[in-house]
Write a structure and sequence with these properties.
InterPro entries: Nict_dMeBzImd_PRibTrfase, Nict_dMeBzImd_PRibTrfase_bact, Nict_dMeBzImd_PRibTrfase_N, Nict_dMeBzImd_PRibTrfase_sf. Keywords: Cobalamin biosynthesis, Glycosyltransferase, Transferase. Belongs to the CobT family. It catalyses: 5,6-dimethylbenzimidazole + nicotinate beta-D-ribonucleotide = alpha-ribazole 5'-phosphate + nicotinate + H(+). This protein is an alpha/beta fold. It folds into 2 domains: 53 residues, 5,6-Dimethylbenzimidazole Phosphoribosyltransferase, Chain: A, domain 1, CATH 1.10.1610; 269 residues, Rossmann fold. The chain contains 14 helices and 5 strands. Helix 11 links the parallel strand 4 and strand 5. It is globular, with a radius of gyration of 20 Å. The N terminus is likely disordered. The structure holds alpha-ribazole-5'-phosphate and nicotinic acid. The site of alpha-ribazole-5'-phosphate has 18 residues, from helix 3, strand 3 and helix 6. The site of alpha-ribazole-5'-phosphate (RBZ) has 18 residues, from helix 3, strand 3 and helix 6.
């Protein structure tokens, strides 16, 4: 046992329901295999939902975890750290990308301050209920967080997931907010997959060439500093992640334990997923990859997890937007599987 997350395998989605859904898919009034990966997506969601003729997902619930990162002071982002609290307010006001997309899909969107470097005066108290600390340490030279803070954040993430599931979620999406957060995401992925800084560093919000060089150096320094700590995912979160990353890991692991499917988003959520799968082997079977972001570390981690993204739109935003963009595909997949006639119904 480490922190709030047990290191034991999680039960897989129902194999019996998956087999029944596949039988139905193969019997639909189409040539065999005609739905391609849309059919595979339907079978996955059927197994997760426990019904070979699933509906929805109708109750999509998004949680955006916000946290600042000390590395943002080293010019690794194209934007200043002041954007993080401002964007928390913009999510609450309904004008953020995730809020607009969520509204268009009938999804709820909840933003939580886990480690924002601001007191967020005037925002509803609920938003700060799970706050662990202000900002995380600059991981190129110090740990992001203490072990106690990581334990608290893992437990918070698990509790947040349980609340969303109690509220009736039939699909969860995990989003992120925090200037500089593509840097710890790349370090977590690089450290766990044994990849070097040049391979995992991306442009994030759109840094220029000198910025990319600086960011690669910072990521290289962090990777060198945490070398030897990748074997223990909880310790690695303290060394190179931060409280918001640990909360995401706790959230994803708990969703799998409760048997609720998740659509993964960009490099932050996927770094959290890679870490959660190591803590809780088998959790990956409850997740599908919503999209491929432009961050190279995200592709590397998805490949390691054996997940093929549904969309590849060149998006690089985070917040959960790439996952939400894939929700209509998932709804189409279940509609096809559950609503179509069978070949045997045809008047041949
Ligand atoms: C206005 C704005 C809105 C955002 N929404 C998500 N991000 C995303 O970009 C940031 C990570 O990229 P980097 O590591 O390059 O800083 C995070 O805030 C992430 O949530 C945003 C960034 C900005 C500027
Ligand atoms: O890949 C992502 O999720 C991403 C890219 C840029 C900024 N924020 C997130």
């Amino acid at each position: 046992m480490s922190g709030a997350v047990a290191r034991e395998a999680v039960a897989a989605p129902s194999r019996e329901v998956a087999a029944a859904a596949r039988t139905r898919l193969d019997a639909l009034a189409t040539p065999l295999g005609a739905w391609g990966r849309l059919g595979e997506l339907a079978v996955w969601y059927a197994a997760c939902s426990g019904s070979a003729r699933p509906t929805g997902p109708e109750r999509v619930r998004v949680v955006v975890l916000a946290g600042d990162h000390g590395v943002a002071q080293h010019g690794v982002s194209a934007y200043p750290a002041a954007v993080t609290p401002a964007m928390v307010r913009t999510v609450l006001a309904g004008g953020a990308g995730v809020a607009v997309l969520g509204r268009s899909l009938g999804a709820t969107v909840r933003v939580l301050d886990i480690a924002v470097d601001d007191d967020l005066a005037g925002v509803p108290a609920d938003v700060q209920r799970y706050k662990v600390r202000r900002s995380s340490g600059s991981i190129d030279r110090e740990d992001a967080c203490s072990a106690a803070e990581i334990a608290a954040a893992l437990a918070a993430g698990a509790e947040i997931a349980a609340e969303e599931i109690d509220a009736g979620a039939d699909l969860l999406v995990l989003g992120d907010l925090g200037i500089g957060n593509t840097t710890p995401a790349a370090v977590l992925i690089g450290a766990q997959l044994g990849l070097d800084a040049a391979t995992v560093t991306g442009r994030g919000t759109g840094i220029d060439d000198p910025g990319l060089e600086r960011k690669t150096e910072v990521i290289g320094a962090a990777l060198a500093r945490v070398r030897g700590r990748a074997a223990d995912p909880v310790d690695l979160l303290a060394a190179a992640g931060g409280a918001d990353f640990a909360a995401g890991v706790g959230f994803l692991a708990a969703a799998a334990r409760h048997g609720v499917p998740v659509l993964l988003d960009g490099v932050i959520a996927v770094a959290q997923a890679l870490t959660a799968q190591r803590l809780q082997p088998g959790a990956v079977h409850w997740w599908a990859a919503g999209h491929r972001s432009t961050e190279p570390a995200q592709s590397a981690a998805l490949q390691a997890l054996g997940l093929e993204p549904l969309l590849d739109l060149g998006m690089r935003l985070g917040e959960g937007t790439g996952a939400l963009a894939a929700v209509p595909l998932l709804r189409s997949a279940t509609a096809v599987l559950s609503g179509m006639s069978l070949l045997s119904d045809l008047d041949l």
